[in-house]
Amino acid sequence: ERVLGELDMCSHLIMLLVVNEWAHIRTLAATVRSALNITHQRDPETGSHITRMAHYARIIAVELAQEMDFNDQFIENIFLFSPLHDVGKIGIPDHILLKPGKLTEAEFEIMKTHANKGRKIIDDLLANYNLGQIQHIRMLRNIVEFHHEAMNGSGYPLGLKSGAIPIEARIVAVADVFDAITSPRAYKRSWSNDEAFLMLQRLAGIKLDSQCVEALVKNHQSVEEIQRHFKEE
Q1: Interaxial angle between packed helices 193-203 and 167-182, expressed in degrees from 0 to 180 and rounded to the nearest 10
Q2: N or C: which end of the chain has fewer CB within 10 A?
Q3: Is 128 exposed, middle or buried (CB count within 10 Å of its CB: 0-12, 13-18, 19+)?
Q4: What pTM did the predictor assign?
Q5: Are 161 and 155 in contact (CB under 8 A)?
Q6: Taking 90 as the threshold, does the pLDDT of residue 215 lie above it?
């Protein structure tokens, strides 16, 4: 009876911990959805782009899971957080964000600030909803702030190199670039998957992570399925 009583008390404590964690996760998911809805009001990129690149990011994470020792939670967080990578564009002026042609050097410098702006927005959201202690939440910050860093140090905002760039940011960078060049825009045609894969391989080790590139290229059939399912709007 004594042991059963202690186990009963412990089970209730564990239940409270699980319920509390689940409540935080549900709040986080709702916060992510709200931030995405706000972003879509200003960002010219379509919802289909966001959805496709999130699936591409998960494909890469799954392919690298054994080698990189990713668990299921890491992979699903990649899928959950990657759509928010450009949330900082909310703070970019319309004449730059919505410009149909190539940006000037000065305009591009302003556009680059979206990485730091995004990190600030995420920090504020997490603080306002008291979500800063959720496990792996740093992944969200890293994706938003570092998805434009380059393997050779030529990226922004900090000019990080190779392994200094968080792996989640390297994964999202490949997914984002691939969908950007395979999607039509007012100022460019869409590239075929073969053309895009070749471009990714040219950028591997220079701008993009080589392992992440190969992980996506190896799963070309899954990529095509995602493109069929989430067509451009």
Answers
A1: 140
A2: N
A3: exposed
A4: 0.87
A5: no
A6: yes
